[in-house]
Design brief:
elongated; mainly alpha; UreH-like_TM_dom; 11 helices; transmembrane; single chain
Length: 236
């Protein structure tokens, strides 16, 4: 997968998967933002800088697993990793296409864990400086998250630090609008990204990317057409 495809995949997964993030982390979002001193709303950016930094560190560690010396992995590993990478991206597409009640449910399943973490976060409050906000964000980014781990699994398959960095940064940026907003802004944004046509378009784009990655060599051989060659090259 090239860097451009990694960016697009991460951004779509973060943007359209962020309703899951809200379901899981809504309580933490409320707790952290409520502790920001009046007139210092910019400190909220620190939460997300820290959170995305944690994501990036986890992703790069995972990438190292995918970069094991060739002698340490079976000869067929590259093809298996291609299939696995394509399959994971198709699963992201399925998740994005799910009705909102199912996506919200996946976030709610993790809500008890986030409630247990509230006392830990409370020890670092109130938010008095950018350093403090970034530190809280780093802690927030270490919370278990199924969507993040899906992206991290993709990072293992990529085995490319540059593509991994692009994907995870784009994923983190994609989650920010919904988690950074509040009140009416959050509701309006959530309503916008939940429009079926928009979600299905994003899901179709991701699913096509996954299929092209998994079966690209076979498709380019079976369908000898310039457009197919072009599409396969776009994700290579």
């Amino acid at each position: 997968m090239n860097v451009e495809t990694a960016l697009l995949t991460g951004l779509l997964a973060g943007l359209f998967g962020s309703t899951h993030c809200l379901g899981m982390c809504g309580g933490i979002v409320g707790l952290l933002h409520a502790q920001i001193p009046s007139g210092r709303g910019g400190l909220a950016i620190g939460f997300h800088l820290g959170r995305v930094s944690s994501y990036l560190a986890i992703g790069l560690l995972a990438t190292g697993l995918g970069m094991l010396p060739a002698a340490a992995v079976p000869e067929a590993a590259p093809q298996v990793m291609r299939w696995a990478l394509g399959g994971i991206i198709v699963l992201m597409a399925v998740y994005i296409a799910l009705p909102s009640r199912f996506r919200d449910l996946t976030g709610q399943l993790a809500a008890p864990l986030t409630r247990r973490m509230m006392p830990v976060f409370s020890k670092f409050l109130p938010v008095e400086s950018l350093d403090n906000a970034i530190g809280l964000g780093l802690l927030w980014g270490l919370l278990p998250c199924g969507l993040l781990y899906t992206v991290v699994a993709t990072a293992v398959m990529l085995a490319d630090p540059l593509a991994t960095t692009a994907m995870i940064l784009a994923f983190g940026v994609g989650t920010v609008p919904l988690l950074l907003g509040g009140g009416l802004v959050m509701l309006k944004f959530r309503s916008a990204i939940n429009r079926p046509g928009l979600r299905w378009t994003a899901a179709a784009l991701l699913a096509t990317t996954g299929v092209l990655i998994a079966a690209g060599p076979w498709l380019s051989h079976a369908i000898d057409h310039p457009w197919m060659q072009f599409l396969v090259e776009c994700v290579s």
